[in-house]
Amino acid sequence: MSNRIKNALRAMPALALVLALVAGALPVFASDSEITLTSLMQEGEPITFYFSFSADSEISSLDPQVATDNVSITYIEQLFLGLTTVDPVTTEIVPELATEWSFDDATYTWTFKIRDDVPWVRWDPVADEITEIRKVVAGDFVTGIRRACDPNNPSLYREVVGSNIAGCADVYSIDPAEVTAADFEQIGVSAPDDTTLTITLVGPIGYFFPMTSMWVLRAVPGEIIESFGEPVGGSTWIEPGNIVTNGPFVMDEWERGVRRVLLPNPLMPADLRGPGNVERIIDTMIADGGTYYALYQDNQVDQAGVPTAELQNVLADPELSKEVVQVVDLTVFYFGFGHDKAPFDNVHARRAFSASVNRELFVQEVRQGRGVPMMHFVPPGMFGSVPVNEVGINGEGIGYDPAFAQSELAEAGYPNCEGFPAIDVVTYTGAQDWAEFVQAEVENTLGCDPSLFSIEQQEFSVLLQTTRAETPTEERPNLWTLGWGPDYPDANNWVYDAGLHCESSNDFMRPCDEVDDLIIEAQTVSDAAERAELYRQIEEMFFGYDGLHPIMPLFMRAGYTQLKPWVERPIETDGLFGGEHFDWINIDQEMQLAARAG
After folding, report:
1. Rounded Cα gap, residues 189 and 216, in angstroms
2. What pLDDT digit, counting tens, does each position of 199-211 carry?
3. How far apart are CA 291 and CA 279, in angstroms?
4. Which are the contacts of 415, defined by CB distance < 8 A and separation ≥ 6?
5. How far apart are CA 467 and CA 163, in angstroms?
6. Does domain 70-282 have CATH number 1.10.490.160?
7. Could you report the per-residue pLDDT of 307-323, keeping only the tens digit for each?
């Protein structure tokens, strides 16, 4: 089939394609018309998964060392292979580009054996042609990890890497304008040959191995990036037609604000591909949730969230309810406190606000039941987590406690909220009602005038910059919304990587305390039971009645997704750590096309 015909078929809607083929000059006999039509539809329509991340979920970067958001990470999962990956069903860490590994206790060095049969490829979306550039080598991981440690890298994940890999923190602490190529030689990563990678850690880091599935540690083709003359964070090399990848899919389209299209990478070794049969992924960005749901009802998309207004009707419907899947994704959302100015430089004010918010009511009224109230940070499923809402060794954390909240506000010097200063609150786009709920709770519980709250919504990337520790104090808000989803299944990912430790990113500007020593101790203790006990103590020191309360945990996200009966995928478990695996999606195309045509 010529490229011109393939392009025409790819651009044609499924229903229009069927009608065009049936109306053509091909003979169709009554006895075999159904078979002929089915074969024609399958020839013209690749097996396609149709969905949408939503219109405000743009890819910020396809660069593995730069990306920080869930949408970008999910697409990187399709395009770049890791040392290991997370099994979408069992959530265990399994081999990917690394086939075996070992750890030297004396030198704190991991050694990985790397496959030699995986190509770097470039897909030309205009010509519909794929080109093998060369094979992946261990040195590509060296390039990736060094880029992750580059002080010019805008990603917060340089600090996640830097706290574990020897020499990394030293490099990213250098003035970005003064860092040299020689500086990167001190980073504890090397490739003795093309199939051997070594990574030396700062100590006996017990949680490092699960991190090897993370996108930020993935190999990249250094010479390709350099050919575009770009530093870390450059955007030209990641554009369709330029980008060189090695994963199960290639990027065919990326029209910002409109849609993204992925096609299978035919040159990737078959044993690295998941068991799915999908030949095309189409992610159309749809601004309105109601419109998206209407398209789901019309069989034009295969997966959709359930709008709040429709949830009870859907759950009560004997047919539609069969398509509903409830998913808890372990992301914990919270309000961050700015410790660098009044009133939340005072621990009693932080405790007062935390105890004044009825999280169960928030989940019911604001989230319509889509969540689990949280009064601590590390969710279930992580090593070192405590049972939901049982904080620390005593099992007592601050939940909704109006009397305690009032006494703590008085202790902070604001009895009955008298003299309490005006505060600036910044939320995600679409989360203003979260702040309004807290505003009402504080008024009802503490007697604070609602006019003290100045609430602003900001797009995610802007909010991140607004709340960075580097932002001048007078420009930073007092209170802001954020969430943290797991990158690897260990409590360290929460109490350190998320910024609670005073020497991690610490955008809360929290002064150091004895709890920070426990966090570092928990990183390096080899005994699992001892580590788990340390994390129980840490949670209590943060969120118990005498805790520091660096943040106000709010809820763990849960939601309802509808999935068409012709789609099979491990949606409940896939993507809990890192991105989803689209190569595990199976489509019954005959059923799908019949529904779309109807």
Report:
1. 14
2. 999 998 888 999 9
3. 26
4. 409
5. 21
6. no
7. 878 888 888 999 889 99
Q: Which two tokens stand for residue 549?
A: 């309360």
Cα 96 to Cα 210, 273, 296, 577, distances in angstroms: 13, 10, 34, 15
What residue ranges do the domains of the chain occupy?
3-45, 70-282, 330-557
Q: Rounded distance, CA 459 to CA 428, Å?
A: 6
Structure tokens at 592: 């799908």
Give the SS3 label for residue 113. strand
Beta carbons of 151 and 178 less than 8 angstroms apart = no
Ramachandran quadrant class, 432 (left: phi over 0; alpha: psi -120 to 50; beta: rest): alpha
pTM of the model: 0.80
d(CA 355, CA 260) in angstroms, rounded, equals 44
User: Which pair of tokens denotes residue 349?
Assistant: 């004010």
Mean pLDDT within 165-181: 94
The CATH number of the structural domain formed by 330-557 is 3.10.105.10
Angle at alpha carbon of residue 59, lines to 56 and 64, rounded to 5°: 150
pLDDT at 64 over 80: yes
d(CA 52, CA 415) in angstroms, rounded, equals: 49
Cα separation, 262 vs 74, in Å, equals: 12
Q: Token pair of 376, please?
A: 């601590």
Q: Is 241 helix (H, G, I), strand (E, B) or coil?
A: coil
Four-residue CA torsion sign, 433, 438, 443, 444: positive
CB 534 within 8 A of CB 552: no
33: tokens are 């018309």
Contacts of 513 (CB under 8 A, 6+ apart): 502, 541, 548
At residue 146, the pLDDT reads: 96
What is the Cα 446 distance to its own chain's centre? 36
463, amino acid identity:
L
Predicted confidence (pLDDT) per residue in 327-386, tens digit: 888 899 999 999 999 999 999 999 999 999 999 999 999 998 889 999 999 998 788 988
Token pair of 584, please? 């595990």
Instruction: Give the mean pLDDT of 131-149.
Output: 97
Burial of 451 (0-12, 13-18, 19+ CB in 10 A): exposed
Mean pLDDT of the chain: 88
536, 530, 426, 531: which is closest to 481 by C-alpha?
426
Angstrom distance (rounded) from CA 330 to CA 86: 15
| C-alpha span between 363 and 58 (Å, rounded) | 27
Count of CB atoms situated within 10 Å of the CB of 358: 19
What pLDDT shows up at residue 389? 65
Continuous H helices in 424-527? 432-446, 460-466, 492-495, 514-524
